[in-house]
Design brief:
Layout: E1 2-3, H1 7-10, H2 17-36, E2 40-42, H3 45-50, E3 59-61, E4 84-89, H4 99-111, E5 116-121, H5 127-136, E6 143-147, H6 151-161, E7 164-166
Parallel strand pairs: 1-2, 2-3, 4-5, 4-7, 5-6
């Protein structure tokens, strides 16, 4: 089994009965499937703890992303008070990375006359909610939603141009 997320978190915070029962159903089955698996790969240590495999020695935590030395910029970034290029990369199917809080923080930055552009790479069911939040906070010119991009090379080109990576 390859465990990439937690249904408990994915379905939390939504008000309909469908999501409530989906959370219970998928969390139960993910625990059962992991418990019966002889080999398990997790993308985070916390998932390994929440959904343990029966074969403790057949479980491993690995990242989906491999960054080689050649992928790391060699040039020095010099900061000044000009426009800052910010970047966020992640799923918009869940909000546990604080995307709403990020928009609120950037609203404060704009009120304090800081100049920035945030590029959001990722897609998911909360994309429109985040876009609406950026409009309500008058950040539609500062926040660019790029959607899901194709592969590491394309994402890396945006990362290389950014001044600050936000996680």
């Amino acid at each position: 089994v390859h465990v990439v997320g937690d249904p408990e978190q994915s379905f939390s915070g939504r008000t309909s009965l469908f999501f409530y029962f989906s959370k219970i159903f998928f969390t139960f089955w993910q625990k059962k499937i992991c418990d019966r698996s002889v080999v398990a790969i997790y993308v985070a240590e916390s998932l390994k703890n929440l959904y343990p495999s029966q074969a403790k020695t057949g479980s491993i935590v690995v990242s989906d992303i491999i960054i080689n030395r050649k992928d790391i910029l060699k040039r020095i970034k010099r900061f000044n008070f000009k426009l800052k290029q910010l970047i966020f990369v992640g799923t918009l199917s869940q909000l546990y990375k604080g995307q709403m809080i990020l928009i609120e923080a950037l609203s404060i930055c704009k009120q304090r006359k800081l100049k920035f552009v945030l590029k959001v790479i990722g897609d998911g069911i909360f994309a429109s909610k985040l876009q609406n939040k950026s409009k309500k906070t008058n950040l539609q010119r500062e926040i660019k939603f790029l959607g899901q991009l194709n592969g590491f090379v394309e994402i890396k080109s945006y990362l290389d141009k950014a001044d600050i990576f936000i996680l």
